[in-house]
């Protein structure tokens, strides 16, 4: 991929995932900067990946052509305001936000009218190169900037462009927040398995291997619908049918739909607040 000078502002979990993926994909460490107020995460990024680090956001930003805005949504305005001041604007730099709940128009305001912006929504499996990232940009963002963002995110997983900005909020519900839904489901299964006499370690093994196997089955069989894969496990008059009947009696689909709707509602609420 194109190797622009790239700065990460905020050196938390998502930054670590992205830097790890970029380095593994052959992006030169010398072209990457990370900035963060506290030192510890920076030191460990420098030790692990050999990138440049600084506690001064303006230093990282001024040295780079592309910036990943990787602070918590609630910190974005407080981070950008002094940065805009000390740089006197972002010039021709490409700004890539990974934050939930901050719209492009709000980012434009926070950056003093800068409009070379791309919104992305990754998720934590990016840490393992198994991420899923949604991307959105307004029509004026050119092809090379789009390709650059897409290739960066493809270093840590798969990507999907959404044509409407609200699609990013739908990506949050279906992918950004979604690893936690699967963890919650696995927690519930593990808790029950433990109650039936398995040790915590045994319960985790049973459930993690099954979840992994199920995800691989989906990936390896694109010709089969999810319902068909489920049908393959569900023998007529058998055990699975009873478990599925029990889920459906509780209207699992409605429950899941409500949870995803709640995630989108919260993302929209943040967009209105921040
Ligand atoms: N976690 C997830 O599953 C996902 C998160 N996101 C988005 O990614 C973004 C980052 O999340 P995540 O990596 O999990 O969060 P983290 O809290 O792990 O990282 C945020 C980092 O920003 C640093 N920071 C705080 N203030 C500033 C500042 N003024 N200048 C520079 N750095 C600052 C913090 O430093 P310190 O700790 O030293 O205060 C921290 O290291 C969020 O906007 C979130 O919405 C998107 C998709 C998935
Ligand atoms: O929970 C959150 O707000 C962030 C965004 C998606 C995943 N974590």
From TrEMBL:
<dbReference type="InterPro" id="IPR008927">
    <property type="entry name" value="6-PGluconate_DH-like_C_sf"/>
</dbReference>
<protein>
    <recommendedName>
        <fullName>Pyrroline-5-carboxylate reductase</fullName>
        <ecNumber>1.5.1.2</ecNumber>
    </recommendedName>
</protein>
<comment type="function">
    <text>Catalyzes the reduction of 1-pyrroline-5-carboxylate (PCA) to L-proline.</text>
</comment>
<keyword id="KW-0521">NADP</keyword>
<comment type="pathway">
    <text>Amino-acid biosynthesis; L-proline biosynthesis; L-proline from L-glutamate 5-semialdehyde: step 1/1.</text>
</comment>
<dbReference type="InterPro" id="IPR000304">
    <property type="entry name" value="Pyrroline-COOH_reductase"/>
</dbReference>
<dbReference type="Pfam" id="PF03807">
    <property type="entry name" value="F420_oxidored"/>
</dbReference>
<feature type="domain" description="Pyrroline-5-carboxylate reductase catalytic N-terminal">
    <location>
        <begin position="5"/>
        <end position="101"/>
    </location>
</feature>
<keyword id="KW-0560">Oxidoreductase</keyword>
<dbReference type="InterPro" id="IPR053790">
    <property type="entry name" value="P5CR-like_CS"/>
</dbReference>
<feature type="domain" description="Pyrroline-5-carboxylate reductase dimerisation">
    <location>
        <begin position="165"/>
        <end position="270"/>
    </location>
</feature>
<dbReference type="InterPro" id="IPR028939">
    <property type="entry name" value="P5C_Rdtase_cat_N"/>
</dbReference>
<dbReference type="InterPro" id="IPR029036">
    <property type="entry name" value="P5CR_dimer"/>
</dbReference>
<comment type="similarity">
    <text>Belongs to the pyrroline-5-carboxylate reductase family.</text>
</comment>
<keyword id="KW-0028">Amino-acid biosynthesis</keyword>
<dbReference type="Pfam" id="PF14748">
    <property type="entry name" value="P5CR_dimer"/>
</dbReference>
<keyword id="KW-0963">Cytoplasm</keyword>
<keyword id="KW-0641">Proline biosynthesis</keyword>
<dbReference type="InterPro" id="IPR036291">
    <property type="entry name" value="NAD(P)-bd_dom_sf"/>
</dbReference>
